[in-house]
Amino acid sequence: MATTRPAEAGATDAGDEERPRVLVVDDDEHNLLAIRTVLEDLADIEVASSGDAALRHLLRGEFAVILLDVFMPGMDGYETAQIIRGREQTRRIPIVFLSAVNKEKEHLLRGYSMGAVDYVFKPVEPVVLRSKVAVFVDLFRMHREVQRKAEHEQALLDANLRANAERLRAEKKLRVTEQRQAAIIESLPILLYLEAAESDPRLPQFVGGNFEAVTGFSFDSLADAPNLWAERLHPEDRERVLRALSERIQSGGMSIEYRWRCGDGRYRHFLDQAVLLRGENGAPAQFAGSLLDVTDRKELETQLLQAHKMDAIGKLTGGIAHDFNNLLAAVLGGLGLIERRLPLEEEHRKILGMTRHAAEQGSELVSRLLAFSRRQQLRPAEIDITGLANALTDILAHTLGGLVELEWRIAGQPWPAYADATQLELALMNLVINARDAMPQGGRIILGAANRRARSGNPHNLRPGNYVVLSVEDHGTGIPPEILEQVTEPFFTTKEVGKGTGLGLSMVYGFARQSGGALEIRSEVGKGTRISLWLPRAPRTEARTPAPPAPQAAPSGTPALRIMLVDDHDAVRETTAGMLRDLGHKVDAEGDGRAALRRLERDGADYDLIVTDYAMPVISGDEVLRQARRLRPDLPGIIISGYAEGSSMPPDLDQAIVLTKPFSIEQMDRAIRQGRGSTG
């Protein structure tokens, strides 16, 4: 059993370790009680009545000293001491033998050989026992204190090492972060600077970032030439910028955009921002600021404004084209009625022919307007570039004249393009003719074809993918930079009056955008112009679309039909009705969709065909036809339109025939036969 007593007054405090322990081993309970009574104020006393019990006690911790009886039943003191000394955990615990006999030298030597450090002979003298045990208890305490201090010092050392290691890691991380931030700043088009408040001429005291990459000059060159910054300001911006600099102390800062000529000679747009820092006395000390290259943003803003402007112009021209088509349909239809119904002398026929020719030229003008506004109907198909080159060369051979030479430069094996073949030929012809006109003394026009891949964020705002780039290059007069953005606007031309409509480039621009591509213009005055047309690569599964068959003459003998005609334009309605009557049909005409639907509800079974305008107020032509087919599902229909988008019918009207204004009587006759399902 083990017993413990509270610590002796003054011996320890709340922060000390537990009291030393002393193990007393004796098979006599009276001896155990006596020894415990003598020693209990020195240490915590644990007692054991046998060697086995003593060994079990030793498994539970350290002891300052072991008082071991020599003679015990079973395992005696010598054997117990030998086992204690044989174990690593207990071999250094002092052993004092308790013995009542065997004071002879040989027995003492045997005890010392078994590991004893001293002997106490029974009957035990309390003073002697206390004295000897106190020495071992004090030694144990001192050992513990030394050990505790060593552990404490080791803990402090470990903590210091950990702190130093943590500090080194933090410093390394800080350096890496600073290097990363410096690398990021140097990779960005931005400079950070500190500049004296009264700096004149302007010269930063500190610059962070890649000064040379942003400006094209080293910082030393700026320090050597303090007036360099002001001298390279754009002339149109100089006065405004210098005024902002002179006022920044009063305002406490500045934020201004300007153009600055960099080391490569090109102007770039900078956003210069700074705030005033004051000294301890409140006086202006220096400016902390940033210089940001916003050239890309300005270019994107310009492109966006140009796109909005072109879109607005496109909507306007599309609307104008629609109105012109109505007028031209009425003019051409009226001319056709006059020619068919009245006997005309030869002179009158010539006048009528000239009038028709002028109206047809107007129709061509309208088609170009529709091309610019991207409202023409395109029939995209796979186009072989080599075949296109051969065909275009043959077409232009008699157009360019003897002073101009045409040369094709095709890089490798070009991909097939995906576009409307007829419109592409017309676009390239326009570009070639413009190139010829830019070289009045003659020269060489170079047509090129190459494969290109557009990636995300490309300058032409194209969808990422593969494109075929067709280019037309001349070495003519070039286009001044101040009008470069205007050349694709309709009716803008630099040619003399009567030598151009200003619709060539606008038509090419509209065709490119509607085809999913882009138009790129690069020009330098006195050196020439290169215009590139980006077109999507044809899908690999796209089969080549054969050319549409040439229109055949309308056969005679079309059966007379009763036709419902709907058009809100009076002149077009009358001329169209006249055409239909000249073809032998009976016509009922209405000026709006509601009146036509009311008549169909009344006598819908009597009509063989409905012909309706597409763009009408209140009810559009496609809606008229849709509601008419609810009344009579088998009713054939023809939609006439001045808009190309009228040709894209909803799925439930896919059987409707589309006729684009202006149209001839022959075209109307073919549409009627097609709508009726006639094979001719």
Low-confidence stretches: 1-16, 496-503, 542-556, 644-649
C-alpha geometry: elongated
- How many H/I helical runs? 18
Percentage of residues assigned to helices: 40-55%
How are the secondary structure elements laid out?
Elements: E1 21-25, H1 29-39, E2 44-48, H2 51-58, E3 65-69, H3 77-86, E4 95-99, H4 105-113, E5 116-121, H5 126-187, E6 190-196, E7 206-208, H6 211-215, H7 219-224, H8 228-231, H9 235-251, E8 253-261, E9 267-278, E10 284-293, H10 295-341, H11 346-372, E11 381-383, H12 385-396, E12 404-410, E13 417-419, H13 421-437, E14 443-454, E15 465-474, H14 504-514, E16 518-524, E17 528-536, E18 562-566, H15 570-582, E19 586-590, H16 593-603, E20 609-613, H17 621-631, E21 637-641, E22 657-660, H18 665-675
Parallel strand pairs: 1-2, 1-3, 3-4, 4-5, 12-14, 18-19, 18-20, 20-21, 21-22
Antiparallel strand pairs: 6-7, 6-10, 8-9, 9-10, 11-13, 14-15, 15-17, 16-17
Helix pairs in contact: 2-3, 10-11, 10-15, 11-14, 13-14, 16-17
Relevant terms:
680 residues, alpha/beta, five-stranded parallel beta sheet, five-stranded antiparallel beta sheet, 18 helices, 22 strands, 43% helix, elongated
What does this structure look like?
The chain has 680 residues and is α/β, with parallel strands linked by helices. 43% of the residues lie in helices and 21% in strands. The chain contains 18 helices and 22 strands. It has helices at 29-39, 51-58, 77-86, 105-113, 126-187, 211-215, 219-224, 228-231, 235-251, 295-341, 346-372, 385-396, 421-437, 504-514, 570-582, 593-603, 621-631, 665-675, and strands at residues 21-25, 44-48, 65-69, 95-99, 116-121, 190-196, 206-208, 253-261, 267-278, 284-293, 381-383, 404-410, 417-419, 443-454, 465-474, 518-524, 528-536, 562-566, 586-590, 609-613, 637-641, 657-660. The strands form five sheets. A five-stranded parallel beta sheet has the order 2-1-3-4-5, with helices on both faces. It has a five-stranded antiparallel beta sheet with strand order 7-6-10-9-8, sandwiched between helices. Strand 16 (518-524) and strand 17 (528-536) form a beta hairpin. Helix 10 packs antiparallel against helix 11. The model is unreliable at 1-16, 496-503, 542-556 and 644-649 (pLDDT under 50).
